[in-house]
Amino acid sequence: MGEMKKEARIRMVQNRICRLLTFLPAVCMACLIFGFSAQTGEESSSLSRQVTEGLVWAVDQITGSGWTEEEVQERAERYEIYVRKAAHMTEYAVFAVTVLLPLRGCGFRGRRLFLITALVCASFAAGDEWHQSFVGGRGPSAADVGIDFTGACIGMGAAGVFLRRRKKARGKG
């Protein structure tokens, strides 16, 4: 009888460890977001400018437009803000999914699952903006919290659609 209790305790500990490990992607995303926010304003602008230029060059190559260096730079300058905001939304969409799925694995369902995920994401976005107030050349932005949260809602929506389809495919819907 004592051996069975010991095995049951071992399984329980293993399950708890596995459950905790499912949050590792969310922790990694939080660290990635925090790392981007720790960049100075100059570093952040330089990175987003490089990404935008790369995207503009790719569009030029795909469309065969033959833009000059000056035209590429002008377009990169024009579209950089959109690339930056799309990056914010994408980060938080992924973050929301990496928070939602392990919470679901812990037994949260329905509105409660989405509410807790939304609170985690909104709180992290607000805290991240506050963190930026201590970084050179950066500052907090309520608009960015809104953009981040919009990305999180997109991620939660996509996860919700996936989970609903998965449930129907299994014949439980």
What would your notes on this structure say?
The structure is a single chain. With 173 residues, the protein is mostly helical. The chain has one domain (41-169). It is built from 6 helices and no strands. It has helices spanning 2-21, 24-37, 41-63, 69-105, 110-132, 142-169. The chain starts with a helix and ends with a helix.
Helix content: over 70%
Give the class from helix and strand content and strand pairing: mainly alpha
State the shape.
elongated
- Measured distance between first and last alpha carbons: 41 Å
Low-confidence stretches: none
Structural domains: how many: 1
Q: Spell out the helices and strands N to C.
A: HHHHHH
Largest beta-sheet details:
none
Number of strands: 0
**Beta-strand percentage range:** under 5%
Q: Counting H and I runs of at least 4 residues, what is the number of helices?
A: 6
User: Radius of gyration from the CA trace?
Assistant: 21 Å
Instruction: Quote the average pLDDT.
Output: 93
